[in-house]
Design a protein that fits this description.
This protein has helices at about 20-75, 85-195. The chain is mainly α. Helix 1 (about 20-75) packs antiparallel against helix 2 (about 85-195). Residues about 190-195 have low confidence and may be disordered.
Length: about 200
């Protein structure tokens, strides 16, 4: 089993940041999916290994049967010790046995080829699926990282905007007082004019 992808367990919190529970839940879902897909891939690899072991057992059993058959065929009955009729029956039996052996060898070779092809196909499928799982997980991790970068950039801009707004608000009372003082001074200057009018 391969190690899990190095995804962050949690993102850094910032002022007015993301919904931490929502992002953490999504990361947990992705990690659970990666674990499930990794388990599926491991099961497929284990099945391929099991089929390979079975193939090796079949090969060794086939080899043992060949040795036994060859030993039996090498020690036939002595034709001089039997009658013509028995000799003819033995020749027919040997011919039939040779046909059976040839058929058995062909069937065994076909079974071995099929098992090898099945094991190779399942191994290739498991590897391809594992690569797809890893690629998908990397793409998802890249998307999450891009979202995190965009969110952090937006938060920095919002913080800068809020800082500018706070500065303007802090300057506003001073400007308001200056305007009020100017208005009061302007009204005092016009006061005698009104009285004269």
């Amino acid at each position: 089993m391969t190690a899990a992808l190095p995804l962050p367990e949690s993102f850094a919190l910032t002022l007015r940041g993301y919904d931490r529970e929502q992002v953490d839940e999504r990361i947990d879902e992705l990690l659970a999916e990666i674990r499930l897909l990794t388990a599926d891939r491991d099961a497929a690899v284990a099945e391929a290994e099991n089929l390979t072991r079975q193939l090796e057992l079949a090969r060794s059993g086939n080899a043992a049967l060949r040795v036994r058959l060859d030993r039996m065929c090498r020690t036939p009955a002595d034709p001089a010790a039997v009658s013509d009729r028995v000799r003819h029956l033995l020749e027919l039996a040997h011919a039939e046995a040779d046909g059976i052996v040839a058929t058995a060898r062909d069937r065994a070779a076909a079974i071995v080829r099929e098992a090898e092809e099945t094991a190779d196909r399942r191994d290739a499928d498991a590897r391809a699926r594992a690569y797809r799982i890893v690629d998908d997980a990397r793409r998802r991790a890249d998307r999450l990282a891009a979202i995190e970068r965009r969110t952090a950039d937006r938060l920095r801009r919002i913080d800068a905007f809020l800082a500018d707004a706070e500065t303007l608000l802090a300057e506003q009372p001073a400007l308001s007082r200056e305007s009020a003082d100017a208005s009061a001074a302007g009204g005092a200057d016009q006061g005698p004019l009104r009285a004269v009018a």
